[in-house]
Design brief:
Strand order of the largest sheet: 1-2-3-4-5-6-7-8
Radius of gyration: 34 Å
Number of helices: 19
Mean pLDDT: 87
Shape: globular
Distance between the termini: 88 Å
Number of strands: 12
Structural class: alpha/beta
Oligomer: single chain
Helix content: 40-55%
Strand content: 5-15%
């Protein structure tokens, strides 16, 4: 059966989904997706997976996708970051049986994406992207989709979207922000760019950006004409966003923890991050529990901190008799699920001549942690000072750090004591192939093989002993003389002997 394309794919496979949960690194795991689906989400994306790691690491595949297969978690789109067509296809082929489409991430603006050369930092390499999407369209049994950011120029954004469509992209998600709109410079997403893309292509389009309430979703659908609206930050602070409902935070926290227990395992750091997002506004007030939430090491511990936050909020509610406390500029009391709005960047300082001065001069050193110049003679950051307090011998000087020797096969740092002079990944492959040990990397293929062989020999010896014993018993039985049963003594009746029967 040929795979569905374009609007047929959106209507039949994705069931004409309009409310979409975005792919979020370490945040859109199975438990969160299921919680979001319970509260109105119609389509979810997996977290972004690294294609190269997905190909080479079976544990990575199992922990991040294979173990999370759930009939309730459909339709589902798996997202990868990649910059090599062949690696991307290999990863997609390994994932295609566990989802309804494969998405190529062309929108991540973070520094790690810049270092790894993926995400939005590929948006100027149209030839490479066209090759990747075209190859995926030809090789995969499921559709290929893309998530992009816009250029400053609307016309260039439209041409970018049309290029991806020609290459075989069957659904396009457009985040209406540019590469530089992130962190404190996030700003407002341009729905005009999204609207222009929607008019220019003949495939379904999802909009991403400026979504904090259900009213924003409805307004975006109307103004841009897109088929669906995707939410990330809004969903993290209120999983019931697509229901148009703003419940008390503890209701969402308790339900999420319930789902986590129903679908183990779930990484503790993911759970902690979700609780921090849900309780964000409350934790600004109850700083002691913020520290406690960061320290606990179990799901039960996280649940206990969440319960304490709930009790404090309910006590506060009883004191104010349900009146809405608007302190802090929040539209609702802090214990109600609501979005977090990033504060705008500070205006540049103005000097005495009325001319804005530079906030940070190029090449300027970081200021000392304290006003006293002798308090931090090494010029270390606050984070490094904390590390040094825990380990006074820690060395932060790059010139004095030992240079890593590269692995002979892949170029990654090799293990210092590896018997093959390789990194762990290459060492594991070689040790498995040659049935060898590498104590440095904790690989014991030879030891395990010898142990299995010894166990098999012991089993064979035991079986042989049993066989010999059975044979000996049979020989003894066959060599024993036959004994004839003696006739019973004659019966005595009145002093006379009765004949034998």
């Amino acid at each position: 059966m040929p795979k569905l394309q374009g609007f047929d794919f959106w209507q039949q496979t994705l069931k004409a989904a309009r409310f979409v949960v975005a792919p979020m690194v370490d945040q859109s795991e199975l438990a969160w997706r299921l919680l979001s689906r319970r509260h109105g989400a119609q389509l979810c994306y997996t977290p972004m997976f690294h294609a190269q790691v997905f190909v080479r690491d079976a544990n990575y595949r199992r922990e991040n996708l294979y173990n999370e297969v759930c009939p309730e978690d459909r339709p589902l789109i798996t997202q990868f970051c990649a910059n090599d067509p062949e690696v991307f296809i290999q990863a997609a082929l390994l994932a295609q049986d566990y989802c309804d489409a494969i998405d190529l991430n062309l929108g991540c603006p973070q520094m790690i994406a810049k270092r790894g050369h993926y995400g939005v930092f590929l948006q100027d390499e149209w030839e490479l992207l066209e090759k990747m999407v075209k190859l995926a369209h030809e090789k995969l049994s499921v559709p290929i989709t893309c998530k992009i950011r816009v250029f400053d120029d609307v016309e260039k954004t439209v041409k970018y979207a049309q290029m991806l469509e020609r290459a075989g992209c069957q659904l396009l998600t457009v985040h209406g922000r540019t590469k530089d709109q992130k962190g404190a410079q996030t700003g407002i997403a341009s729905w005009e760019h999204i609207k222009a893309v929607r008019k220019a292509v003949k495939i379904p389009v999802f909009a991403n950006g400026n979504i904090q309430h259900l009213s924003d979703v409805e307004r975006c659908l109307e103004e841009t004409g897109v088929q669906g609206v995707m939410s990330a930050e809004g969903n993290l602070h209120n999983p019931a966003l697509f229901e148009g409902h703003s419940p008390p935070v503890w209701e969402m926290a308790e339900e999420y923890l319930e789902v986590v227990r129903e679908h183990p395992p779930c990484t503790l750091s993911f759970i902690r991050a979700h609780l921090f997002k849900l309780w964000h506004h409350t934790l600004q007030i109850h700083q002691d529990l913020r520290e406690e939430l960061a320290k606990v090491k179990t799901v039960e511990g996280l649940a206990e901190v969440s319960l304490q936050l709930k009790l404090r909020c309910q006590e506060e509610m009883s004191r104010c008799n349900g009146a809405q406390d608007r302190d802090g500029g929040l539209p609702f009391p802090h214990w109600i699920c609501q979005p977090y709005v990033r504060p705008p960047p500070k205006d540049p300082q103005v000097n005495g001549n009325g001319v804005p001065s530079e906030v940070k001069k190029p090449g300027a050193h970081k200021r000392a942690l304290e006003d006293d110049p002798d308090s931090n003679p090494d010029g270390l950051s606050k984070n490094k000072l904390k590390k040094k307090s825990r380990n006074p011998r820690k060395n932060f000087c790059l010139e004095q750090k030992p240079k890593y020797i590269k692995c002979e096969q892949c170029g990654n740092p090799k293990g210092n004591k590896c018997v093959f002079n390789l990194c762990r990944g290459c060492c594991k492959k070689k040790a498995f192939k040659e049935v060898a040990d590498c104590p440095s990397h904790g690989l014991r293929f030879k030891t395990k093989a010898e142990k299995r062989k010894l166990e098999e020999e012991n089993e064979q010896e035991t079986d042989q002993e049993k066989t010999d014993q059975e044979k000996t018993d049979q020989e003894k039985t066959s060599a024993a003389p036959l004994t004839v049963a003696s006739s019973p003594p004659p019966l005595q009746t009145n002093g006379q002997t009765a004949p034998a029967p």
